[in-house]
Design a protein that fits this description.
The chain has 787 residues and is of the alpha+beta class. It is 20% helix and 31% strand. It is built from 13 helices and 42 strands. The strands form ten sheets. An eight-stranded mixed β-sheet has the order 35-36-38-37-39-40-41-42, sandwiched between helices. Strands 29, 30, 31, 32, 33 and 34 form a six-stranded antiparallel β-sheet that branches. Strand 35 and strand 36 form a beta hairpin. Helix 3 crosses helix 13 and helix 7 packs across helix 8.
Length: 787
């Protein structure tokens, strides 16, 4: 027995040794090596201009006609796509969560609010399961109780047993005509409501194609069907259509007149052979005239065509020796001109209104000023109806909206706007933009405007100009994550009495609070600052943040900028930013020079040789956010779209230490080569904005601010996500060149990757894909701040 016990003990010891050998403690797991950034091939090419020589190793990327280069480009783009996926793979759960949040805020009912014009209500709605909308109309007389676009269901009135909705254009069918892609640029219903003229983008040929549809039969008219159309205007009460076509360089240069239903060739009304002249046409709101604007960088002219007889010729009514914004309207025998043209040869910083009798016999025509200049009350825009003139005003940095009865007193000289019988219309707080709606009905006293704010979803508002009553007819309710479609009796409304409506500012009604306007001020704060730039000029800075943020929180922030073409910086509430705000982020907007909203001088001080002002303004705002502890140091991100991408990338070149990350969407990054050797046609406005390379001073300025030409060497750059598109309209090669060169020059840090994300053309039209791209951007920013 002892032998058995001894044998068993030995066996147990041997098994234990075997087990210990087999289950030794594992070695610590090594972290996977970070993905390696792609390295596209270099093919250095030298360029010389104005005696300056430079080398571009990636110029081959823009050789669209070189099949070998484009095959290399395809390989590079595939590598970039895989690299971005690999870097962002550990944030997949976060991306899915963000996308779910953002998609849940997309309105289920994507219909537009009904627009009344004459006897009809026009609107667009998206049918379930379809990607593109359907343009529809209903007779207003059959729909007095019309509340939403889904009632009666599918346009069928079960009470009367009649179908009361008429489908005009199904853009899903248009997508089948145009290779699965439906993008409409222009659409104009004829004044007799019998036809609609519209232009659809032909992606394969990169132009817009004109079609005319008979609204009674629903069929396409045999003519006109024209390629490369840029403008439309109806004449002869809808029996004739005027349209403008572009040349191969996309310059609008010819006007044709087509008689609907006629087999005759379309008549050529005007051709501008001068390559510097561009043409634009539009109807006056009463459809009495078609205005023709011809302009160069140094001149502007406006002609009139009698809409009743469009073949009778063009009559010159205005000209000035500079590029100017000129809009002409007609009201009861008078022409009204809204312009920012120089006065007495001196450039001015604002728009003003002139008037002249239609049948003025004098040559040149005499124009009389309507309002006296008031530097404290700037007229930003005007809109005419038969009995009222609506004015969008700016008082300092605050927007105002008011109406004035027509006709105005003419022939008695200019008057002060404040002395007129003005009715100020109700507005919410923190208005950042007022956009006139499609107010087609000249004889209606109701005008539609879109009111925007950083802390309020866009509100589509109908104002009754006779009473001051206002109706919010569409606005997304962010508290319930749905869209309110309001119309008629169910909408929020306020009536302003006549005694109070003549004050010098907007009226504060009992109903005008955050609830009636669906503001989010209870949850998100909006503050404004004037930040001194490098030269002492005060730059407006707007910040938005959650009221639940605590002072001790380490707050990350994102700074938006644009600063080009005199365009307003988009500070509207964007539902996708709610995901960042609710995570404690500060969202900031820098109104840098070069942008709009502060007069023509503000724009001119940030273009061509003064482009550095825009960049310095943006940098000053970035420093202000950090120095005042609004945003924690090393937790600031930049964000720029198109020309705003140039702004942010240039700021990063100058101060890469200011930013922890940046998002550049379809950015303009290589101005030197793009302006010198344009792959795609550029227009005069592009050169006026960024400079003429033929001018030595402009060229030196371009070289100085160009993001691609000024990347610092051996310096740590912030993490950057560049979003571009396969569509060549957005110049994917610019993004690819800049990304490759940043990787070449700067210090590599896997925690600060330089990513190129390529989107499809469908993102513009697909809300789901938009939320996916926005989720990727937000996840990238959060990941970079947390790393």
């Amino acid at each position: 027995m002892r032998h058995l016990f001894r044998f068993a003990a030995v066996a147990r010891r041997e098994n234990l040794v075997f087990l210990l050998r087999r289950y030794r403690s594992p070695k610590p797991a090594t972290a996977p090596s970070p993905p390696t950034p792609p390295k596209p091939p270099k093919k250095p090419q030298k360029f010389s201009f104005h005696g300056i020589t430079w080398e571009d190793p990636y110029s081959w990327m823009s050789n669209l006609n070189d099949k070998v280069a484009m095959r290399h480009m395809d390989v590079c783009m595939e590598q970039e796509e895989k690299y971005t996926e690999a870097v962002m793979s550990d944030s997949e759960k976060l991306q899915n969560k963000l996308q779910f949040e953002m998609a849940s805020r997309i309105p289920f009912d994507l219909s537009t609010p009904p627009l009344r014009w004459g006897p009809w209500l026009y609107y667009r709605r998206v049918e379930e399961g379809k990607q593109y909308p359907v343009l529809c109309r209903r007779l207003a007389s059959l729909n007095d109780e019309f509340i939403s676009h889904k009632y009666p269901p599918a346009g069928f009135d079960f009470a009367s047993g009649k179908r009361i909705e008429q489908k005009l254009i199904d853009y899903n069918q248009e997508a089948e005509r145009f290779g699965g892609f439906a993008y409409e640029e222009l659409s104009e219903v004829s004044p007799n409501h019998q036809f609609i003229a519209y232009t659809m983008y032909d992606k394969d040929n990169d132009y817009f194609k004109l079609s005319v549809r008979n609204l009674n039969s629903g069929s396409l008219c045999s003519k006109p069907q024209v390629d490369r159309v840029s403008n439309l205007a109806w004449a002869k009460d809808g029996q004739a259509l005027l349209y403008v076509v572009t040349d191969q360089k996309k310059r609008p240069y010819r006007i044709y007149c087509s008689l609907i239903g006629s087999t005759d060739d379309d008549a050529l009304l005007l051709e501008e052979s001068d390559e510097n002249v561009h043409i634009n046409i539009r109807n006056t709101k009463d459809f009495r005239f078609v205005t023709v604007n011809t302009f160069t960088t140094t001149s502007s002219k406006v002609f009139l065509i009698n809409a009743a007889d469009p073949l009778s010729g063009l009559k010159l009514v205005w000209e000035c020796p500079s590029l100017a914004h000129c809009i002409i309207e007609h009201h009861q025998g008078y022409l009204y001109l809204f312009t920012d043209a120089p006065r007495a040869g001196q450039s001015i910083d604002y728009h003003y209104l002139l008037c002249s009798p239609v049948n003025d016999p004098s040559n040149p025509r005499k124009w009389e000023e309507v309002f006296l200049n008031d530097e404290d009350l700037i007229v930003e825009d005007v809109d005419f109806s038969d009995k009222y003139l609506a004015l969008i005003l700016r008082e300092g940095c605050n927007f105002r909206l008011c109406s004035v009865k027509l006709p105005l007193s003419t022939g008695k000289g200019a008057v002060k706007l404040r002395k007129l019988d003005i009715r100020y219309l109700s507005l919410p707080k923190h208005v950042c933009q007022i956009s006139p709606g499609p107010n087609y009905d000249f004889y209606s006293s109701v005008m539609r405007f879109i009111i925007s704010s950083p802390v309020m979803p866009d509100a589509v508002v109908d104002y009754e100009l006779t009473t001051g009553r206002w109706n919010i007819i569409q606005q997304q309710n962010m508290l319930h994550e749905r869209t309110q479609i309001l119309y008629g009796a169910n909408s929020a409304s306020v009536t302003l009495d006549n005694a109070n409506s003549k004050c010098s500012g907007p009226v504060n009604s009992k109903l005008e609070d955050s609830q009636s306007w669906n503001e989010l001020s209870e949850f998100y704060a909006c503050e404004q600052f004037d930040v001194p730039s490098a030269d002492g000029v005060k730059v407006p800075l707007t910040i938005v943040f959650s009221r639940s943020n605590k002072p001790e929180d380490k707050t990350p922030g994102i700074l938006h900028g644009h600063g080009a073409y005199g365009e307003l910086l988009d500070k509207r509430w964007r539902s996708e930013l709610k995901s960042l705000l609710d995570r404690g982020w500060v969202v900031a907007y820098a109104d840098v020079r070069g942008g709009g909203g502060h007069g023509k001088k503000w724009h001119h001080e940030g273009r061509r040789t003064k482009k550095h002002n825009s960049i310095n303004d943006y940098i000053s705002c970035a420093k202000f956010l950090i120095e005042t502890d609004i945003v924690e140091e090393n937790k600031l991100a930049g964000w720029g779209y198109s020309a705003g991408g140039l702004l942010v990338a240039s700021a990063i070149n100058q101060h890469p230490d200011l930013f922890r990350a940046a998002v550049l969407k379809v950015p303009f990054l290589d101005p030197t080569n793009t302006l010198l050797y344009p792959v795609l046609p550029l227009i005069a406005a592009d050169y006026e904005e960024f400079g003429y390379p033929g001018d030595l001073n402009d060229f030196l300025a371009i070289r100085d601010y160009s993001p691609y030409d000024n990347i610092q060497k051996d310096v740590l750059y912030p993490a950057v996500l560049v979003n571009s598109s396969f569509n060549t309209r957005f110049g994917v090669w610019e993004a690819a060149k800049w990304v490759a060169r940043v990787r070449d020059h700067t210090i590599y840090d896997p925690k600060r990757p330089i990513l190129l994300n390529l989107t499809t053309d469908l993102v513009e039209e697909n809300r789901y894909l938009q939320s996916k791209e926005s989720a990727l951007e937000a996840a990238f920013l959060i990941k970079m701040m947390d790393s």
